[in-house]
Protein: UDP-glucose 6-dehydrogenase
Organism: Paenibacillus motobuensis
Amino acid sequence: MKITVIGTGYVGLVSGVCYAELGNEVVCVDKDAHKIKVLENGGIPIYEPGLQQLVDRNVQQERLYFTTDLKRGIKDSEIVIIAVGTPPLPNGEADLRYIEFAAREIAALIENYTVIAIKSTVPVGTNNRIKQVMKEVTEVEFDIVSVPEFLREGSAVNDTFNPDRIIIGGESQNAIDRIVELHKPLNAPFVITELRSAEMIKYASNAFLATKISFINEIANICERLGADIREVSRGMGLDKRIGKDFLNAGIGYGGSCFPKDTKALIQLAGNADYDFKLLKSVVEVNQMQRMGVIRKLKYALGELKGKTIAIWGLAFKPGTDDVRESPAFEITNYLLKSGCMLRLYDPVAMGNFRSYVDHANIFWAENEWDAVASSDAVCLLTEWDIFKQIDLKVFAKQMEEPILIDGRNVFNVKQIKDAGVTYYPVGSSPINEMVFELEKSKATN
Ligand code: UDX
């Protein structure tokens, strides 16, 4: 099939490349000339494991092209996929400017019947609106299909090839059949729905996963106070198939380009329909609060924060990506800077992106994980990258006068920590070696 994908962000680029890998001829179009230049020169504008090799192979086999020229891009295309951004407006609603603009442009250019598949996350009712917008521009026949995307950054290629389900919302059987045919090689169950239900499935799925995270984070906060261990609690809960083990890792709250945006958009969407989505409002509030757990523990461990040097391991909102959008690291570093701390920051791939948003005379951009630790009073682990998980804790303990580790992602186990003598503040369980630490502190001062 000949396919055009509009928008080369995470969703557009990864989907486009994967459709090419399935044997289709794919043209990826973006208005951003810089992104297209990077792609034309053989690079990729995002960090995503496995994507570069797929781009190389499909470009070489002449199945994958990049252009800024929409007219050239959609010529003879059977399916045009819209995957442009729907960023949040200040009130939380999704900004539909880009998608409407793309729809108008496509309508002005199509010459034959075309299936328009919308992958961008859009409020319920948007696909119908897009249809009207396009009808105002063209007399050529087309059908709109909603095909929401569920890929995760950091495992986007694998998720695209191994989806749990393919959601297709539409009104025209012919258009639905074309989209089914395109996705058949993926061997996943199809859920065929009305347009509005498909749109809602995407929001409801993200909101539900966000709820799971805020729920387990609150249970973790209670565990800290009552002396239970959240890791054991999560494991015990997750083995119940009705609950499921995924998304039960307590931490510092969710970030990224989807959960924060989509939860707020769904609250707005419900509000516009006169429904107060109380549960989801609490989910968002809990998520915001959760970041402060790291600060609370730092204050407990160090007392006064002013003048202290804090190392931060991890700036990306999750491992496997250079994306820092809505990363908890922003709130945490801003709070520490305001409190008069000196920061030593390190992330294996997201330093450049983070630095483009935050720069400060009190930030030292470390060259590696150890460089960040040097001369620090405490280390906070915010992103669970493998290099941090594989740290030799005995070596770590020797690098610091009083080794203090605030682990926002629960990556170390009790035995490792105890053996190394590190004072350790995990999420959702009691601190480890804290007594040893207190004892030695008092010995040192006596
Ligand atoms: C998410 C959805 O999973 C995906 O289906 C959708 O298409 C886009 O949004 P993504 O944002 O890439 O994907 O990452 P995900 O792995 O879902 O993690 C989101 C956030 O939740 C991260 O900040 C992560 O650290 C956090 N998280 C996840 C937890 O805190 N605990 C968990 O148990 C799982």
